[in-house]
Predict the structure.
Amino acid sequence: MEKKLLKERLKPILRLVLAGMIGASAMFFVLYKKPGKHKLEKFLAVAGVRERMAARYGRDYNAKVEVSGWQGVRSPAHGMWKVRPGLDVRKVADGFTYPVNIVFASPPPTDPNDTLFYVNELHGSIKFVTGNGKVGVYAKNLINFTPIPQSKSDESGVSGLLGVPGSRDLIATLSYLDSSSGLMSNRIIRLVSDAEGKQVKEVREILDLKEFTSPSNQIQQAISGADGRLYVSVGDGENPPLSLDLTKFGGKILRMNFDGTACEDNPLYEAVFPDSPRSYIYSYGLRNVFDMDVDPRSKAILAVDNGKANDRLVRIEAGASYGWNGQPEGTLPNAMYTWNPPVSPCGATFLTKEVLGPETYGRFYVGCYGPPWVRGSTLGKTIVEFELDKRTHLLRSVPQTILQYVGDRYTTVLGLAEGPDGLYFTDFFGETDSSDAAGTGAVWKVVGSEETLGLPEFEEESFAALPPAERGKFHFHRNCRTCHKIDGVGGAEGPDLSLFRREMEIRLHSKAYVESVKRLLISEQSFVKEQTPRLREVMAAEGDERVRVWLRHHLEEPRFDNTRSHMPNFLLVKKRDRQDIVEFLMRR
């Protein structure tokens, strides 16, 4: 009897302990799990990071949000680009074939005829551009295969480019065909420059990965870390198990000395096997990191990882796993920010000078390539800006668009680099409407400009003259397409709205919906009681008008008839713009 009584008294305590253990598992801890008998495998609990950010800053910036308010102004000289007021875009050089990344010459030029920067072309060349805009060939025939010019997913060729600190030499990452097997692999080379930095004198191999890969998701960018070491990103070769396999290079960030030897303080370094992949691994579980850069304040590396259903921005930590396992949600772990639907973030750079105006030092910029080989203005084809907290180095806000392509060609954004007078980027295809983009690629720069400050956003007069449903289509795609799909285009988090009006009329007149509203009208919950006028107005309308009234209230307060709704409200969107969305959806 005493044991039974004691057990009953302990039950509440045991429940509290169990609840505490479950809650603690979601907090921001660094968890360790031995992958073998050597080093530790580190996992970061993302749920806890998000909870802490929400508690500290009042918003979880890793959650999906609807960004509104930026429409941009057309560049006065280059109307196919829209820019944030106070910025403009200038063409620097053209005539490139699939330009990828930009590296500025070291030391900086003192004469306009000196080399200002280098551009690697995917299909095997590196070109230099002088201060006065002259383009020349620095190196060519760097790959030993004939690339496929029109493959939508082909990334094979010269993909990464880096200037060797304190030298005119360059480092390039590239793919090659193994002569014995005929399969593709990756390697890292050093290009020794002449005295003027305009021609390669010698090519030295730094590291041959000797690991077969695919035309996509292969070796990408190389950067110099704050510690003076060489960091290289390697994709999973379209073979997801490689990412979590600590005996392979694929799906990793590698860290090495500039002579190609593994750093002895790497998290998985093995003195007995210094040339093994484990010895080079800095972090793993990544799918396809196109680019990365060093935060000038925290000295941490931020990287953009391309996924299938989600792209992500991550902070690269020593020994950390980022969880890519081939599943659609496999690019969600440890994300500082996620894009859904994906936008193919490819270029990434921090500003170490205020080249885009006051307070831009330390801001992080990402070039979003968008879907490959797609004409016109579409998802992506933008440069977005992240602002980080100076103390915590966490995101202070969702990304803000500073540039967007609005023309009708294949033009898009790929590589980014901070220059002496602006933010430079490569246009991979150029202003072409042909499937052959040979010689049409270009390099542009975003600069500060007072010319765009007084311009109307989105040609307000002509836009306002459009029918409400046409304006609503624009506002829907800008604010709703992330979560909702129409005619096969858009996200999948919310319901498909292709047949919105017809389906909603059936639902709002159904017995189940009418009964649910009756229950809400007699509820004593304060929030529900506040929604009474909205609920009564919906029920007083009939037919299409009931759908119209419901949608108007739904955009203002999505929880008015469903307290469990997770959709954000649209109160930050202008009332007229919300009404235009209503008119657009009522045509569906």
Notes: The first strand starts at residue 30 and ends at 33. The chain has three domains: 2-57, 73-448, 466-585.
